[in-house]
């Protein structure tokens, strides 16, 4: 049986990511014939078809191909990590997944940190729902995912990087704006404008019902900026988790006040597939976020 080479893994992952042998070969700067021959040899070695070749639609991985691509990405990442240990500088790619509602608080400081402290690191990010990002984690297309702790799935290892406080978002002119805490009963009957990103909306409803209040949902939006603008215009209230050190000024037309009702503990976690050692770049993401949100 022939040995599988790192070059074969690199070519295969490039083709899967590009969904095309032609585009994949350009990505790795070799000829299309070389890439095709390499993947054919890989399939022969494994005794399995990894790609579905469609003349008009390019290529798509088979089920075996998807699973193999995820493992291949991990092998390539570990190889890059071994190479990093021979140099004094941190370098190479890091792709951070972050739930959309946390992205404004997490991505900009992380990007600034790596740009300033580790310019040899190629920092990129992906936004999405917790389910999407944790699927991407197991497919190997993101290196670490930042999600709310209550959103993580059972098959990940989680490191909490920040506490989160549930707050009521109100117009800055609201009659309750001077309160230090607000109960759900205080806003019962007022129109709700919820962030429609799973599972945020369902959790908001769950928490309010547990307090004996049925929310009167007027609108939902997957765009946090839209929710903020609607609340600022006096059209309702919303609920949102706030991170340490984060403030939203009344200059933006809103004010956020902590909820006084009992709420299950929540936080923000960096998650990795269980059993996978975090590369140095991922360890730096976790270290920096914990420090940033202290």
UniProtKB/TrEMBL annotation:
* Residues of the HTH lysR-type domain: 4-62
One Pfam annotation, family name?
A: HTH_1
May I have one GO cellular component term? protein-DNA complex
Record has Transcription as a keyword: yes
Q: What are the record keywords, sorted? A: DNA-binding, Transcription, Transcription regulation
Q: Which domain of life is it from?
A: Bacteria
Q: Name one GO molecular function term.
A: DNA-binding transcription factor activity
Keyword DNA-binding assigned: yes
Tell me where the transmembrane regions lie. none
The record's similarity note reads: Belongs to the LysR transcriptional regulatory family.
Q: What protein name does the entry list?
A: LysR family transcriptional regulator
- The source organism is Brevibacterium aurantiacum
């Amino acid at each position: 049986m022939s040995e599988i080479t790192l070059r074969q893994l690199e070519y295969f992952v490039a083709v899967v990511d590009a969904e095309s042998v032609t585009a994949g070969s350009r990505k790795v700067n070799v000829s299309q014939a070389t890439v095709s021959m390499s993947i054919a040899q890989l399939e022969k070695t494994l005794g399995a078809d990894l790609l579905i070749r469609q003349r008009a639609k390019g290529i798509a991985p088979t089920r075996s191909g998807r699973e193999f691509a995820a493992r291949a990405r991990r092998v390539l990442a570990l190889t890059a990590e071994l190479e990093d240990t021979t140099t004094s500088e941190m370098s190479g790619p890091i792709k951070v997944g972050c739930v959309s509602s946390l992205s404004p608080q997490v991505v900009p400081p992380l990007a600034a940190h790596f740009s300033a402290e580790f310019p040899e690191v190629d920092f990129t990010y992906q936004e999405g729902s917790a389910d999407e990002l944790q699927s991407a984690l197991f497919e190997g297309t993101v290196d670490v995912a930042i999600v709310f702790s209550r959103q993580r799935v059972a098959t990940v290892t989680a490191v909490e990087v920040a506490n989160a406080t549930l707050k009521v978002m109100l117009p800055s002119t609201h009659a309750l704006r001077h309160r230090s805490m607000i109960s759900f009963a205080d806003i019962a009957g007022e129109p709700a404008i919820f962030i429609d990103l799973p599972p945020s909306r369902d959790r908001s409803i769950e928490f309010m019902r547990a307090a004996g209040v049925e929310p009167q949902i007027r609108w939902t939006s997957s765009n946090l900026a839209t929710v903020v603008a609607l609340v600022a215009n006096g059209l309702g209230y919303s609920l949102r988790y706030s991170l340490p050190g984060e403030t939203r000024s009344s200059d933006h037309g809103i004010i956020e006040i902590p909820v006084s009702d009992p709420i299950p503990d929540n936080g923000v976690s960096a998650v990795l597939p269980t059993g996978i050692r975090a590369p140095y770049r991922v360890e730096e993401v976790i270290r920096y976020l914990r420090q940033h949100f202290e």
